[in-house]
């Protein structure tokens, strides 16, 4: 079965860190960091309803203005997630503009900005366009293990890392894939059709065995059957896991937190800002080397690694940087 989420690096391995995640079958998308995003088509940007920002350094957050410009005038609600203090950065971005005419706008734009204060605590502040983006009183809620959002189709978790300032790494875990055995449908004389989507959804949402499923298009009681009697039509496989790690110091504490978050990821987007020979410079700047990135991916049993955020000092040396990452990744795995 095809994965629900399809991630891509927006600005290549040297540009501003941004990963755009398209959602199959749904008109919604996610962003991990929001650096320069002008290369994304406006229609793709307007699909974004969740933005996960590692920290507010300019190369990770400068694209917020472009996002804002494209969303004003559209009915939209966007959730943003970041580290402690993130809501204040969003507030100042919003208040940099004059909003004196927004009371007459026909469409409302809402930003819900959530800060992961600790692994078990989130603080959310809401901003309404029609209120000139004045901040509403913040609301605190408990979470567990850094879970930012938990939906039937996916979960996003974060770890708080150190970069001279709190910096978040993220993991997007897709819910299990539910596949239908068409030969079993045939054997039982059951039709193929849209009702199978309801069946899959019920399984993903962990409905009880007595939950009723309508087979076909009929609305009669004869065509409503309990979920338990249909489970043998399905097989369930693990969903895809996508991880995103950038701008972190190579410390034992950071490595341990990253490993716990990204373990067994199918795809890991991880910074490799400096070459292995420049480890001293990487430590001074609070970044990872190519070697460190490869080692971290191996230690976490990652399936595929996508290094990025290469320093411009290595312009024209992409193949070298990639080779260093893969050498550490493959050698360690051997």
SSE order, one letter for each helix or strand: EEEHEHHEHEEEEEEEHHEEEEHEHHEH
Strand portion, in percent?
A: 25-35%
Oligomer: single chain
Taking Cα atoms only, what radius of gyration do you get, to the nearest Å? 22 Å
Structural class: alpha/beta
Helix content: 25-40%
Distance linking N and C termini: 30 Å
Q: Which descriptor suits the 3D outline?
A: globular
Number of E-type strands: 18
The tally of helices reads 10
Give the strand line-up of the largest sheet.
1-2-3-4-5-6-7-8
Biggest sheet details: 8 strands, mixed
* Uncertain runs: none
Mean residue pLDDT: 93
Question: Could you characterize what this model shows?
Answer:
With 334 residues, the protein is an alpha/beta fold. Helix content is 25%, strand content 30%. It has helices at residues 42-45, 58-61, 64-71, 86-94, 182-187, 195-204, 252-262, 279-285, 290-299, 318-333; strands at residues 5-9, 19-23, 29-32, 48-52, 76-83, 109-118, 121-128, 139-142, 147-150, 154-162, 166-174, 177-180, 212-214, 224-226, 234-237, 241-245, 267-271, 304-308. The strands form four sheets. The chain has an eight-stranded mixed β-sheet with strand order 1-2-3-4-5-6-7-8, covered by helices on one side. A six-stranded mixed β-sheet has the order 9-10-11-16-17-18. Helix 9 (290-299) packs parallel to helix 10. The relative contact order is 0.11. The mean pLDDT is 93.
């Amino acid at each position: 079965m095809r994965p629900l989420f399809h991630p891509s690096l927006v600005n290549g391995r040297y540009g501003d860190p941004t990963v755009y995640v398209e959602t199959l079958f749904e008109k919604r998308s996610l962003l991990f960091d929001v650096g320069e995003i002008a290369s994304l088509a406006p229609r793709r940007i307007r699909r974004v309803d969740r933005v996960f920002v590692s920290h507010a350094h300019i190369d990770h957050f400068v694209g917020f203005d472009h996002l804002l410009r494209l969303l004003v005038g559209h009915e939209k609600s966007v959730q943003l997630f970041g580290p402690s203090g993130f809501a204040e950065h969003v507030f100042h971005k919003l208040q940099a503009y004059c909003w004196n005419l927004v009371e007459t706008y026909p469409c409302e734009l809402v930003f819900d900005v959530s800060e992961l204060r600790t692994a078990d605590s989130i603080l959310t502040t809401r901003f309404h366009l029609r209120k000139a983006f004045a901040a509403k009183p913040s609301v605190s809620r408990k979470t567990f293990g850094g879970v930012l959002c938990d939906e039937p189709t996916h979960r996003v978790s974060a770890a708080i890392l150190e970069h001279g300032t709190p910096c978040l790494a993220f993991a997007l875990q897709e819910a299990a894939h539910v596949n239908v055995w068409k030969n079993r449908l045939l054997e039982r004389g059951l039709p193929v059709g849209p009702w199978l989507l309801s069946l899959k959804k019920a399984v993903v949402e962990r409905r009880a065995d007595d939950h009723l499923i309508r087979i076909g298009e009929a609305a009669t009681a004869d065509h409503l059957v309990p979920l338990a009697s249909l489970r043998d039509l399905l097989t369930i496989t693990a969903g895809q896991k996508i991880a995103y790690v950038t701008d972190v110091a190579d410390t034992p504490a950071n490595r341990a937190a990253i490993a716990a978050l990204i373990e067994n990821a199918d795809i890991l987007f991880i910074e490799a800002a400096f070459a292995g020979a420049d480890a001293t410079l990487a430590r001074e700047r609070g970044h990872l080397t190519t070697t460190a990135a490869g080692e971290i991916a191996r230690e976490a049993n990652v399936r595929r690694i996508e290094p990025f955020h290469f320093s411009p000092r290595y312009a024209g040396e992409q193949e070298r940087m990639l080779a260093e990452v893969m050498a550490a990744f493959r050698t360690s795995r051997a």
